[in-house]
Amino acid sequence: MNKIVFGFDQEFSLPSAEYEQLAQRFKDHYEFVQLDANTVPNSVSLENAVAFIGAPSAELLKKMPNLRWLQLPSAGANHFAHHPNLAKEVTLTNSSGVFGVIGAEHTLALILALIREIPLYVKQTERHLWHEGDRCLQIDGSTFGIIGYGDIGSEIAHRLKAFGARVLAVKRNLSRLPEDADAVYTLADLDTVLNESDFVVNVLPLTPETKNLFDAKRFAAMKDGVQFINVGRGGTVDERALIDAVHSGKVGGTALDVTAEEPLPENHPLWDLPNVLITSHSLGVGPGKYKRRNDLVAKNVTNFIMGKPLKNQVNRELGY
To answer: Which terms does the record give in the GO molecular function aspect (predicted)?
Structure first.
């Protein structure tokens, strides 16, 4: 009998009642197998596994030669889109749409922290210093370039508009003007957006096209004193170029939820930049994501078994 495998870990799990409900509903057609992350007991064979829910290791992928569908717990799919152990015919789906609200709230927290110089005051609090900052900014009347206008990017824009911001959206296709955006561009016009933006918010996935997209030339195209926020993927930024741009004053402040290497090494120079805030890839942390992701998994399992189209299919050529 074909198997649907759930590779759950501490971060990603389906409530036992929902899991049992799915298993019971489709028991005549599929065997449901629940693993502890990537640990496979010797008594369990995955030869007939046709679907996997989770983020399997390279070794685990080798044990599933008949895999037809892989559902990821994350929105990012770059690690699996071109994975050598994942056959090209395997359908890859991600958890896009799960992180929109909490991701936008996290990003807004970073923006507010930068404009009110919170990193400075945190350091002063630790040292018991009472000094008033002199570089406060404001959202109202400022221009925000949101680079990557998907689920999270559009939710960020929705909140920024309530603060009175002007929003320039950068997305792959110019099908129509997105809601909450004042203008829309493609990556071909990225420099135009960077030149006009007081704040640059990077929400891009990591693909061959976006790797080190924000390099020295891109930072040079930005306004002097720009605030740079990265909540996309660390590999989209040339971190040496970012460090140089901060030290030169081109970038006035930076907030990073992601870095090229994670965890960021203790001695990495990013930690010691002036007016920097690093939040340890915690954008997705929050109570709301679990129900949305559980609903997505349950829906996709049902669709897979019933032969219906799966939600959140990844274009494996593009990487998202």
So the answer is: NAD binding; oxidoreductase activity, acting on the CH-OH group of donors, NAD or NADP as acceptor
pTM beyond 0.70 = yes
Q: What is the C-alpha to C-alpha distance for residues 59 and 18, in angstroms, rounded to an integer? A: 28
Across the range 2-27, mean pLDDT stands at: 86
Q: Does residue 316 fall inside a structural domain? A: no
Residue with tokens 């930072």: 219
318 found inside a domain? no
On whether the CB atoms of residues 254 and 227 are closer than 8 A, the answer is yes
Domain hosting residue 217, numbered range: 100-278
Q: Region 95-107: what's the mean pLDDT? A: 94
Q: Which residues contact 229 (CB under 8 A, 6 or more apart)?
A: 107, 110, 111, 114, 199, 200, 201, 202, 254, 255, 256
Regarding whether 72 and 26 lie in a shared domain, the answer is yes
What three-state secondary structure class fits 300?
A: helix
- Under a CB-based contact definition with an 8 Å cutoff, are residues 173 and 179 in contact? no
- Asked if residue 216 and residue 271 are part of one domain, the reply reads yes
Which residue numbers are catalytic?
233, 262, 281
